[in-house]
Amino acid sequence: MAEAILKAGQVLFVGAGPGDPELITVKGLKALQQADVVVYAGSLVNPALLEECQAGCEIHDSAPLDLEKVLALLVAGCRAKKKVVRLHTGDPSLYGAIQEQMEALDAAGIGYAVIPGVTATFAAAASLKQELTLPGVSQTLCLTRLAGRTPVPDPEQLQRLAANGGTLCLYLSVGMMAKLVAELLAGGVFTEQTPVAVVYRASWPDERTVEGTLADIAEKVASAGITRQALILVGEVLNARSKGVPEKSKLYASDFTHGYRKA
Ligand code: SAH
Q1: Which among 75, 103, 227, 263 could bridge 257 via Cys, Cβ 3.0 to 4.6 Å?
Q2: Does any ligand 1 atom lie closer than 6 A to the CB of residue 46?
Q3: Model-level pTM?
Q4: Per-residue model confidence as pLDDT tens digits over 138-154
Q5: Are residues 106 and 52 in the same domain?
């Protein structure tokens, strides 16, 4: 229960989910409802969630603040023995910059905990009605990005990851589609026929989906005018909806025995 996890004088990092305010966890919602201070990432957290906060809750948008100012809010709330929630978009562990906040809280002797959230990848897969792992097609999911102002370490350059095949989900990269396509092709596994889906603002009312192949997706995304807040899914699994599933899973196969069912 959130009662136990949201403690006065401590910070609770909460995943807000991808946008739809009902896609926060039950535990995350309870924490929001009980918080005295909420510092939320205004760029992608749905403000409708803040209506859940109790009257008198102190609410701050962290979008215009630097790390120091965010930390000052968290620390001041904790020193005043308030219940503090730091609300991050999607799941806090992905591109959330939470580690540096935790490190500073450690230094200040302030405790904290984390409640996970639904990341953009899973919201996008749900919007597409798409399984990301299919027997005989892909059993691996790679969550990554192209370098922007934040660099990507050399061994993780997209071209190298693309050489593994599988299903790739790219964050923070829709503004660089030409580069993205070039790197994916350079891996030598994906081809111009490899399917790609781009989901803009998955689970929001203005969600949009663009589907194509590595040959035409950059152009399609450009004509759709999508330059941010989108997730890019790449891989053969995306063909299953139009071309069918090549191999049924063992899990529900009648001749397959497992721990919960005899063939
Ligand atoms: N922690 C977040 C990711 C933050 S980085 C998470 O787990 O989802 C911000 C990037 O996430 C955006 O540039 C976009 O690529 C992706 N993103 C976040 N919310 C999204 C949504 N609702 N639909 C599509 N992409 C989204």
Answers
A1: 263
A2: no
A3: 0.95
A4: 999 999 999 999 999 99
A5: yes
